[in-house]
Write a structure and sequence with these properties.
The protein is of the alpha/beta class and about 475 residues long. It folds into 2 domains: about 5-170, 3-Layer(aba) Sandwich (Rossmann fold); about 175-480, Dihydrodipicolinate Reductase, domain 2. The protein has helices at about 15-30, 50-60, 70-75, 90-105, 120-130, 150-160, 175-185, 220-245, 250-265, 270-275, 400, 410-420, 430-450, 465-470; strands at about 5-10, 35-40, 80-85, 105-110, 135-140, 165-170, 200-210, 280-285, 285-290, 290-295, 310-315, 330-335, 340-345, 365-370, 375-380, 390-400, 455. Helix 10 (about 270-275) crosses helix 13 (about 430-450). The structure holds 6-O-phosphono-beta-D-glucopyranose. It comes from Ideonella margarita. Pathway: Carbohydrate degradation; pentose phosphate pathway; D-ribulose 5-phosphate from D-glucose 6-phosphate (oxidative stage): step 1/3. Catalyzes the oxidation of glucose 6-phosphate to 6-phosphogluconolactone. It is an enzyme of class 1 (oxidoreductase).
């Protein structure tokens, strides 16, 4: 299958930091279909050779284990092309169409790696130039909108030009190997599904913790905040994968229909429940990995009086028969104690304990970061001389060890899926809008009350109020158990 992959924003950070390295890995793993061309478009004048040199230099900043040798890079670079484009000029789109038509590849994937405020205008121009025919797919990178109205407006324009089947909305968390394994764990194994419900599960915790601060992205981040940056998309997508009903097939729409139902079943927030069930925080100076780091207000391009949240913890419920009454706790933050993304499923204790240590309940930990894995926490008898005492033990599955040669990164997986036309791991417009609908009352309550922005020391696990939120139900975050 021949393909053309076009990156709008071809010299931008996302392209050289994430997308090109991911494509290179796909190339190195022999997974990139033969007969492909990769075209970067951007505003300035460059030749193909100059663009290849630009990417070669950027690759030297990438993780050394992933860095190509000169010979490997040269083979990859032969796929790279560059075209100058002024995104406001219809003639430049016509020129792009000509470039694509001249070869007539089976598929053209147009990846919008530009600032999202340009998406509607670019889509309209693509439509006007006839670059929306049925061989074209468009990939849209987050953030898709700032609130419900802006997300709806982007989707309205995208839908007026492309069909839903042509629109690939990226949430890179869905490309993480552990997230795909969650589908396999639940729907390819008979073991867990009968227990996957309120009768056996006490609570579920989703933590997306980062030890990094906002770095050089202060201006973007300050307009965004943790709720929009991580909860509205990544955390809610993970929640849908955990809570969804088994889809009837493994097709994109069967899966996305089920995920949408979960989003629609989330308990809606009111101004009052936001005060009770949502904690927002901002990091102050502290210590991370033995180094002292500045507070959020001291970061570059952050206003000194900013009230932007860098941490959110919240409690919600999925209001349906399967999950009624089970708390779902979501938490994310910058400058926390560790880079650690995981989902913890806490099971209920045994109904009638006959061993002294039976207070420990089973727990399944789905680890997304820093490594991918699964841990099942059980109780076991240690051996002779221990009496009836049981000890907690862990069954540990490390996916890197289980499948050492087949691991692919999130962007690599998603780019290959977009080229192959597989929509399963992309977000449909109605899911995305429903997620905005659910977070909006939180944004409104914060704007109206201006209340309760807590601070936390960099390197900690967030404000004390986040622990209190969970303790109120008699529970504790994983690291406090
Ligand atoms: C992005 C957010 O979507 O995800 C960033 O905009 C965040 O702020 C990043 O750092 C986290 O992704 P990952 O894969 O490093 O956990």
């Amino acid at each position: 299958m021949s393909f053309d992959l076009v990156f709008f924003g071809g010299t931008g950070d996302l392209t050289w930091r994430k997308l090109m390295p991911a494509l290179f890995q796909a190339f190195r793993h022999g997974k990139l279909p033969a007969g492909g061309r990769i075209l970067a478009v951007a505003r300035d004048e460059r030749t193909d050779e100059e663009y290849r040199q630009f990417i070669r230099e950027r690759f030297s900043e990438v993780d050394s284990s992933k860095r190509p040798s000169d010979e490997e890079f040269d083979r990859f670079a032969a796929l790279l092309h560059y075209r100058r484009m002024d995104l406001s000029q219809p003639t430049d789109y016509a020129g792009l169409k000509q470039w694509l038509d001249d070869r007539g590849a089976d598929t053209a994937v147009l990846y919008l790696a530009t600032s999202p405020h340009l998406f509607p205008a670019i889509c309209e121009q693509l439509g006007a130039a006839g670059l929306n025919h049925d061989k074209v797919r468009v990939v849209l990178e987050k953030p898709l909108g700032h609130d419900l109205a802006s997300a709806q407006e982007i989707n309205r324009v995208v839908r007026s030009v492309f069909t839903e089947q042509q629109a690939f909305r990226i949430d890179h968390y869905l490309g993480k190997p552990s997230v795909q394994n969650l589908m396999a764990l639940r729907f390819a194994n008979a073991l867990f599904e009968p227990l996957w419900r309120r009768e056996s599960i006490a609570n579920i915790q989703i933590t997306l913790a980062e030890s990094l601060g906002v770095g050089t992205r202060g201006d973007f981040y300050d307009r965004t905040g943790a709720l929009r940056d991580m909860i509205q998309n990544h955390a809610l997508q993970l929640l849908t994968m955990i809570a969804m009903e088994p889809p009837s097939t493994n097709d994109a729409d069967a899966i996305r229909d089920e995920k949408l139902k979960v989003l629609k079943s989330l308990k809606p927030f009111t101004a009052e429940s936001v005060t009770r069930d949502v904690v927002r925080g901002q990091y102050r100076a502290g210590n991370v990995d033995g180094k002292s780091v500045p507070g959020y207000l001291e970061e570059v391009k952050v206003p000194a009086d900013s009230r932007c949240e860098t941490f959110v913890a919240l409690r919600t419920e999925v209001q349906n028969w399967r999950w009624a009454g089970v708390p779902f706790y979501l938490r994310t933050g910058k400058r926390l104690g560790a880079r650690d993304a995981q989902i913890v499923v806490n099971f209920r204790p045994v109904p009638h304990p006959i061993f002294p240590s039976a207070g420990h309940a089973n727990k399944l930990v789905i680890k997304l970061q820093p490594e991918d894995g699964l841990e099942l926490h059980l109780l076991a008898a240690k051996g002779a001389g221990q009496g009836d005492a049981l000890s907690p033990v862990r069954l540990d599955l490390d996916f890197d060890k289980a499948f050492p040669t087949d691991r692919v990164g999130a962007y690599e997986r998603l780019l290959l899926d977009a080229i192959a036309g597989r929509l399963n791991l992309f977000v449909r417009s109605d899911e995305q809008e429903q997620a905005w609908r659910w977070v909006e009352p939180i944004l409104d309550a914060w704007e109206n009350s201006g209340s309760d922005l807590k601070t936390y020391a960099a390197g900690s696990w967030g404000p004390a109020a986040a622990s209190a939120l969970v303790a109120r139900d008699g529970n504790a975050w994983a690291e406090e158990q």
